[in-house]
Specification:
The protein is mainly β and 122 residues long. The chain contains 1 helix and 11 strands. The strands form 2 sheets. The chain has a 6-stranded antiparallel beta sheet, with no helix packed on it. Strands 4-3-5-6-9 form a 5-stranded mixed beta sheet, with no helix packed on it. The N terminus is likely disordered.
């Protein structure tokens, strides 16, 4: 499908961001946006996670191996908790497991006690 026939490509404001930046204090983690991105902490026998938070002390902060997932739907991003042990909060509100909630530029995410601000990079 050409860009002119694709509604999200022809309308820049409806296209999802190309990358996400997770700000953890003064540190940054930048990842390319994919249709489904699992966040958590990788272990040796786990499948590959798109967003591995191990280097930010995720294990000590209560992040589950498969904690949450960010999905692209209709050009927008949604986050859902994957039944994590310590829960996921978006701007302070606890998410219901497996219920997607829209993710916006500048939102604060908490996975267990791990806190980050999400920035969209177009």
């Amino acid at each position: 499908m050409s860009a002119q026939n694709h509604p999200t490509a022809s309308q820049g404001h409806n296209a999802p961001p190309a990358r996400l930046e997770f700000r953890v204090g003064e540190r940054r983690l930048v990842v390319a946006v994919h249709m489904a991105m699992v966040m958590g902490r990788r272990t040796e026998d786990d499948e590959v996670l798109q967003i591995d938070l191990n280097r930010y002390g995720a294990g000590q902060l209560g992040v589950s191996r498969r904690h949450a997932q960010i999905d692209v739907q209709g050009g927008e991003l949604f986050i859902r908790d994957l039944g994590s042990t310590n829960g996921t909060r978006l701007n302070g509100a606890l998410l219901t497991s497996e219920q997607p909630v829209r993710l916006r530029d500048g939102d604060e995410l908490e996975l267990g006690q791990f806190r980050t601000v999400v920035r969209f990079i177009y």
